[in-house]
Fold:
Amino acid sequence: MFERSDVVEAPSDNTLTTAQKPSKDLPLPRDFVWGAATAAYQIEGGAFQDGKGPSIWDMFSHVVPSRTSGDNGDVACDHYNRMPKDVELMESLGLDVYRFSISWSRIIPLGGRHDQVNEAGVTFYNNLIDQLAARNITPSVTLYHWDAPQALYDRYGAFLNTAEFKADFENYARLCFSRFGDRVKEWVTFNEPYVISVFGHHSGSLAPGHNRATGFDTKTEPWRVGHTIILSHTSVAQIYADEFRPTQEGCTAIVLNGHMYEPFDSNSNADKAAARRRMEFYFGWFADPIYLGQDYPAVMRAQLGSRLPKFSPDELELLRKSVSLNTFFGLNHYSTKYARALPDPPADDDITGNVEEGAINSEGEEIGPVSGMIWLRVAPEGFRKLLSWLWKRYSIPIIITENGCPCPGENNMTLEQAVDDQFRIRYLGLYLDAISQAIYTDGVLVKGYYVWSLMDNFEWSAGYSPRFGIVHTDYKTLLRTPKKSASYLKHSFRHRRERNQHHI
Ligand code: GAL
Structure:
């Protein structure tokens, strides 16, 4: 399995091949919204400021030897202290939406339902939301983007104890809805349950870093964590609908991530089945219970047996009732991979569906040019196919809640070179074209697009090397400089939405 920290250091000419050029701005619907996304731990800094409690990322980024390339988020982009200027910057970029996450331990330092609220933390988010409103930028707020209060792991293993975690998450969500819900109308419960489960509790490359080598039970932990997330999401969606929606009139959703998978050998039935199975182990794991209100996919039950937790009849009933509370499918998508069926029985802690994944197929062809990270290749056709796959299976409107890439070698460039980010412009252009084709040719309902990310930031286990921003961050001076992709997006969205007027 790939590691999220694998960076492409080789310098490049910062372009894609001409064969990969985007079209001239294929149209998008007039009410299509665009924005930029961030996450608290990746940009805020102020890790120990104003009463914030430690999160699992504060701990994980300080372990010795380092598991985060020697970097940590103590200061990050110092957004916590520079927020008003950052919102000004967002306005200048022309964003409709700003997607950010709340740091749970900033507003409840110990995280639990009997613990104190940190008013200074609440004030920070209140100010941020007010600044956004003053500049006409719509907030999209994620409650959980990977930074659980450390105290919850210390007390009861956090996600590993479904009942305790769910109760604490419900309390935290209620606090957020009651303090911010008068102005926030788009709520995301969890960002990328797959990554929380697998990278946090199987490979251990992300916090809290559980893996087999460090003595954790990788056969069951990822599935228990996923189960906790599904039930906590469902319960909070129901709480919002019952207690807050009648007056606040907002909506709740969850953000799932995943690659598109193509068969390694397009003539092999085994590889075709492997690609399908990989998608079910990636998306179906969460999306079947949440959007279809039913049990995990049959292929998962068949392979995993008792390793996969069971939903009780009451839980299944709640899942069924909650399907319509999910107003959109939040999709984080970056790349496509080939899937090859493994000949031997699966490993005892397999999480893939017994599939090997890679970037090169049986003909020796690459899925697409590599970006600044090994796992992220430019493959817009795969994106288009994925949109159709999701639409056919779940028939729910999609918002792209993250998409973007670092340019190859970007971290070794001068500021002047880095802001001339032609590779990123092409990538974004191709992916936006894919959305247009999905909408107008394939009939998929896609309603918005949030680029990852507003600015270069702390890329988890890869530290500060990969630069995903449409704005450059100088980590010495903390100066922000918009890259050319920022103005590309501003103009391209205007143009694409105007072109729609002439489109049938
Ligand atoms: C996503 C994650 C983001 C960001 C992005 C780029 O999985 O939600 O926080 O790190 O990947 O790798």
User: Anything to note?
Assistant: The chain has a mean pLDDT of 96.
